[in-house]
Design a protein that fits this description.
Blueprint: H1 2-17, H2 21-28, E1 45-49, E2 55-62, E3 66-73, E4 76-81, E5 90-96, E6 100-101, H3 105-111, E7 124-134, E8 139-148, E9 151-166, E10 173-184, E11 200-211
Antiparallel strand pairs: 1-4, 1-11, 2-3, 2-11, 3-6, 4-5, 5-7, 7-8, 8-9, 9-10, 10-11
């Protein structure tokens, strides 16, 4: 009897100390806790516009019959983003007025004359932001000064951040924007052809910019 009791006690101790095969398999399947997902990298910093992917399109009405458009290509400048305090972000853009394209060479030449953009005397136009007002997660109103033909007037842009993150080919932070506004060209002295060609001009901007460093 004593021998039987010792044998039973040994089995009980071994059963407690050594997990069963099934229990061992369950233990093997226990995975370590997943590491918390890394927070997205901040997009704060200075970005240089990519001229090959940045252009300013404009549309005017022609005598009520149609809407005609053209664009300024190769805009340059910088955008400074402050993700924590977007109201502190800044925008500075320069356009070479001779880079106007309509698809009609004779019209392009005409638009470069003194009757329109007078590109010899005023080779550039600039926009410098004065105020940024966030209106949503990825949208804002940017008010600044547009200088054209030597005249400086306030303009407000409705801006949307399309995408931000590491560029798959450039391997650095990259951002893309849309922006739009409507203005009267006569405010800057561009009055030729009114009213046959509308005073009101719709502006659409597509821009990409890469981190400066």
């Amino acid at each position: 009897m004593k021998r039987l009791l010792l044998s039973a006690l040994s089995v009980a101790v071994l059963s407690y100390a050594v997990p069963s095969h099934a229990a061992g398999q369950a233990a093997d399947r226990v995975m370590p806790a997943a590491a918390p997902a890394a927070a997205p990298a901040s997009i704060s910093g200075v970005y240089n516009f990519d001229p090959s992917h940045t252009h300013i399109s404009w549309t005017v009405e022609h005598m009520g019959y149609s809407h005609f458009n053209g664009k300024f290509a190769n805009a340059t400048g910088t955008v400074t983003l402050d993700e924590a305090h977007p109201e502190n972000s800044k925008l500075n853009v320069t356009v070479n007025t001779s880079d106007i394209v309509t698809g009609v060479p004779k019209l392009d030449d005409h638009l470069k004359t003194e009757q329109f953009f007078n590109v010899i005397k005023f080779p550039t136009a600039t926009f410098v932001s004065d105020k940024v007002e966030p209106t949503g997660k990825d949208t804002a109103k940017i008010t600044g000064t547009l200088t054209l033909l030597g005249v400086s007037k306030p303009v407000t842009l409705d801006v949307k951040l399309n995408k931000s993150g590491e560029h798959p080919m450039m391997h650095k932070n990259w951002v893309g924007f849309d922006a739009s506004t409507t203005l009267k060209r006569s405010d800057w002295g561009l009055s030729y052809g009114i009213p046959m060609v509308s005073d009101e001009v719709k502006i659409e901007i597509e821009a990409e910019a890469g981190a400066a460093s």
